[in-house]
Design goal:
The protein is mostly helical and 145 residues long. Helices cover 43% and strands 0% of the residues. It has a domain of 96 residues.
Length: 145
């Protein structure tokens, strides 16, 4: 494990479960990191993953713990995986997709250029949607009636 530490799993996995499943932590963490790929176009994921201790982004730690815990359980029969582990995994994958698409805010560091300016562009949906009607009703026609 490079990013996560053993204490990160407290409250997510019982100590006895972590000891039993912990042999595959490095591989499970690598699989969890692969789920962060959609974020790499806007955020400095490698910079975030290089942080340690209290400097780590708490949201990223939570995401990584929940996804890693799910992969740790891949070594046991499906009916032995707690539903909360599956639900947490699905929630984190959905959160990653929302953050990557700009539908959810994030505290992750954005990508920067050589001068330190953010090169990440976020799309803000402030324009009203267009009508695709062939002959849209005009407001003046309604007012004259």
């Amino acid at each position: 494990m490079d990013f996560l530490i053993n204490n990160d799993f407290e409250g997510v996995l019982a100590e006895s479960v972590y000891i039993k499943l912990g042999d595959d932590v490095d591989e499970s963490e690598a699989l969890a990191i692969s789920h962060l790929d959609p974020l790499r176009g806007k955020f400095a994921i490698d910079v975030e993953l290089a942080k340690s201790g209290t400097n780590r982004n708490k949201t990223l730690v939570r995401m990584m713990v929940n996804i890693t815990a799910y992969y740790l359980y891949n070594t046991v029969p499906d009916d032995e995986i707690p539903q909360r582990i599956i639900d947490n995994f699905k929630m984190e994958i959905a959160n990653i997709e929302k953050i990557a698409s700009g539908k959810m805010n994030s505290t992750l560091e954005t990508l920067t250029d050589d001068d330190g300016n953010s090169v990440t562009v976020f799309r803000w949906n402030s324009n009203r949607g267009r009508s695709h009607e062939l002959y849209p009703p005009s407001t003046t026609a309604k007012e004259s009636l």
